[in-house]
Amino acid sequence: MQGCTSLPVVWCRAGVDEIRPLKMTYIAENPMVPLKLTAIAAQPELTVTTYIMGQDVYGPSEQSVIRPDALMDSLSEFEGRSNYPMVISRAIDEAGPAGAFIREYGNDFRNLVDFAYEDCCLQGDDFCGVSGNGSCECPGASYDRDDCAGLVDAGEYNTAYEMFEELRNKHASITRLTTRLSPAEMTYDPMFEPRGSDAFAQRLIFSPEKFELDGCRSRFVDDAAVEQYRTIALKDPCTTTYCGAGTCHSNADGTQAMCACPANYVSQQFIDLDGLPSVTCVPNEEIIDLAAGGITLPDACKGRDCGNGTCVDIQGFATCECASGNAAIVSPNGAVPMCETAGPAVDSGARNYSVEFLNVPVCDPAPPQCGANGWLVENGFGRRFRGVECAEIDSSRFTPPPPPVCDNGRDVYGDLPDGSKGESDGCAQTGFDAAAPVGGTLFVLLGLVGLIRRRREA
User: Fold this and answer.
1) How many helices (H) and strands (E) does the chain have?
2) Where is 175: in which H helix or E strand?
């Protein structure tokens, strides 16, 4: 191999396109993943996902298992970016030094087939019209063969599909386990064992929860509420940043997150699971002494600018040690972060800070309530919030329309589909009687809908 040095490790100058997956076959009672070897050239918060196929669901022998639903309260987004990878990192670190895995799936292998794939690709005919659209969506299907042949690695793609089908027909269960860890944490090679009682079969469909008050700024009850809103808004950038041992800050204008690292730690920029740059804190130490094996790496800090900090070369990666009072922020056009004056401190990051907006007092009209005849009427509390008298504001959107009038002058719960009024819509009744709870329940639900809409607007 050209450009390689064979010492205790093989060091190659190869591009990404030249790298092929490493396949290992070994005899053992249970599967294992060699993480220790990965530490030599891994970046921070490396995502390691393990698929285990067999007759049972598997789990790690020594590490703890975290169910995805335990992460739901922390899931959110910032400027369209989900924080799921960062939340995983924080949850695993909080589980302890022994490490942990997120069980993202563990059950029947057949459930992994996507419904759309099953409907479109396993029916024998081009039911969904995928042929000739330039996209390989049904590998193995004759009607999508030309599209799939256009792939750069079409042969490998189809081979992989055939292997997947073979495995799916051979094994009853599949387990997907994910962990995230930095090189300094790759001190173990996890082994896995059957855990049939830990089956988790739900499909992972995460919808990050985000609360906003941008449309309510003019209706904060007082200056204290305005300041409370600003304080929470400054935390928001830390939603999608996890600083590990460090502390997440926002920059001065609250648009980006920063990491302030403690003593013996430096900041490192890396490409995260979603393909976007992130920054975190890593130990200022060499994981493996390459020099002991006679390997001399180029100076990773040559030509690098850390701003208000100093570049530190750690095992071929450029990192930054920020000066006191500064924190590292992602540099969109560089391989190292920039050290700038730190804004307000938050915590380690990777949380749903927007939920705190629910505690900001906002003055808004109370939603309508049910009147005596079952029709919605304005709420008697008027423009108040927790006993605070609010200024005059527009409440027209919560003003219910006038109730209809029956031909016989009696109360009505609603009109007939053709707009007329008759006995079936309550015109034969006066006020509430035995049938009234049905209509009353309906309007209580309508009131709740109004309340939900108001909260969403806020």
Assistant:
1) 6, 22
2) strand 173-181
Nearest Cα to Cα of residue 267 among 296, 222, 310: 310
Question: Rounded to an integer, what distance in angstroms lies between the CA atom of residue 324 and that of residue 222?
Answer: 36
Q: Which residues contact 36 (CB under 8 A, 6 or more apart)?
A: 186, 187, 188, 189
pLDDT in tens, the chain (458 residues): 233 333 333 334 444 455 566 777 888 888 999 888 888 878 899 999 999 988 888 999 999 999 888 898 999 999 999 999 999 999 999 999 899 999 888 888 766 655 556 667 766 788 788 888 877 777 777 888 788 776 656 666 667 777 877 888 888 888 999 999 999 999 999 999 998 766 665 566 667 788 888 777 777 878 888 899 999 999 999 999 999 999 999 998 889 999 999 999 999 999 999 999 999 999 999 887 776 767 777 889 999 999 999 999 988 899 999 999 999 999 987 789 999 999 999 999 999 999 998 888 887 666 677 776 667 777 655 555 554 556 555 666 567 777 766 665 555 554 545 555 444 444 444 443 333 333 333 333 333 333 333 333 33
What secondary structure does DSSP assign to 315-333, as a single string? TTEEEEEEPTTEEEE--TT
CA–CA gap between residue 163 and residue 170 (Å, rounded): 10
Cα–Cα distance for residue pair 110/113, rounded to 1 Å: 6
Which helix (DSSP H) or strand (DSSP E) does residue 311 occupy?
strand 309-314
Q: Which two tokens stand for residue 382?
A: 């008027």
Task: Give the separation between CA 436 and CA 438, rounded to whole angstroms.
Answer: 5
Instruction: Say what the pTM is.
Output: 0.71
Euclidean distance between the first and final Cα of the chain, in Å? 62
Sequence-distant (6+) residues with CB within 8 A of 388 are 221, 222, 361, 363
Query: Which pair of tokens denotes residue 329?
Result: 């922020």
Say which DSSP state 250 is in.
E
Those residues whose C-beta lies under 8 Å from the C-beta of residue 223, and which sit 6 or more positions away, are none
Beta strands in 199-308 (DSSP E): 247-250, 257-260, 265-271, 277-283
Q: Domain ranges in the chain? A: 4-116+155-198, 236-356, 369-457
Contacts by residues 452-458 (CB-CB < 8 Å, ≥ 24 positions apart): 454/364, 454/367, 454/398, 457/215, 457/216, 458/212, 458/213, 458/215, 458/216, 458/362, 458/364
**What would the DSSP string read from start to end of 343-382?**
--B--SB-S-GGGGGGGS-B--PPPPEE-TTSSEE--TT-
Nearest to 199 by CA among 161, 173, 231: 173
Gap between the Cα atoms of 356 and 102, Å rounded: 27
